[in-house]
Amino acid sequence: MDLTEEILLKEGKMLPVMEHFYTLQGEGHHTGKAAYFIRLGGCDVGCHWCDVKESWDPELHPLMDTVEIAEIAASYCKTIVLTGGEPLMWNLEILTKRLKELGCQIHIETSGAYDMSGTLDWITLSPKKTGLPKEGIYKVANELKIIVFNNHDFTFAEEQAAKVSENCKLYLQSEWSKRNEMYPKITDFILANPKWQASVQTHKYLNIP
Predict the structure, then answer these.
(1) Per residue, what are the HEC states of the chain?
(2) What structural domains does the chain harbor?
(3) 47 labeled part of a ligand binding site
(4) Of 140, 144, 153, 155, which sits with the fewest C-beta atoms within 10 Å of its C-beta?
(5) In the beta sheet, which residues pair with residue 126?
(6) How much is the pLDDT for 191?
(7) Burial call 119-158: b when 16+ CB within 10 Å, e when fewer
(8) What was the pLDDT predicted at 10?
(9) Is 49 known to sit in a ligand binding site?
(10) Is 126 annotated as ligand-binding?
(11) 133 is in an annotated binding site
């Protein structure tokens, strides 16, 4: 990456885009809705069970003009999901400004480990033990999504739920490889704690991106 690209990246005029695609939202509150996903490269949270580890190194992914990717996305759909990697590693001001000009609703899926940027309509906070969220994101999160990999994650879920607003929706989602083991436990936990809901990676069952 040359100096000019570094400056454009810092300003948010270019972003490392791993992939972008039109599909159905597979998880959480908006499951089943058509959405255009922009997956940004770069993440240092380091979850060992991450299913997109190829997103971690931003230098593996081409820099794209931010306005161009916004206009491509908006031409397909007005619901845009920013994901990663960790999208908040980057300056999202220019991207979200252009998307809003194009009439879009902007969702983000984030660990919350970085400061907020940009204009966002729906914030999915998925905290990770390896890089806890910034305190400020808890009160603005619209949904809290805890990935359940082991039994301790239920304790972690309650600790995180205590920090979000009372209007934040609470979801438990099994890590995919543990789904046969963890969903029975998730079911029992939700029956005992009905403020929670189950989230399932329906896109994997539908065999779509």
Answers:
(1) CCHHHHHHHHHCCEEEEEEEEEEECCCHHHCCCEEEEEEECCCCCCCCCCCCHHHCCHHHCCEEEHHHHHHHHHHHCCEEEEECCCHHHCCCHHHHHHHHHCCCEEEEEECCCCCCCCCCCEEEECCECCECCCHHHHHHCCEEEEEECCCHHHHHHHHHHCCCCCCCEEEEEECHHHHHHHHHHHHHHHHHCCCEEECCCHHHHHCCC
(2) 3-206 (3.20.20.70)
(3) yes
(4) 155
(5) none
(6) 98
(7) ebebbbbbbbeebebeeebbeebbbbbbbbbeeebbebbe
(8) 94
(9) yes
(10) yes
(11) no
85 labelled as ligand-binding?
yes
Instruction: Consult the annotation and say whether 179 binds a ligand.
Output: no
pLDDT per residue over 85-136, tens digit each?
999 999 999 999 999 999 999 999 999 999 999 999 999 999 999 999 999 9
At 188, which amino acid appears?
D
CB 41 within 8 A of CB 61: yes
Q: What letter represents residue 166's amino acid?
A: E
Residue 90 annotated as lining a ligand binding site: no
Taking residues 189-209, report their average pLDDT: 97
pLDDT, tens digit, 9 for 90 and up, residues 18-41: 999 999 999 999 999 999 999 999
pLDDT digits (tens, 9 = 90+) for 144-197: 999 999 999 999 999 999 999 999 999 999 999 999 999 999 999 999 999 999
What confidence score (pLDDT) does residue 53 get? 84
51 marked as part of a ligand binding site: yes
Residue 50, marked binder: yes
| 128 assigned ligand-binding residue | yes
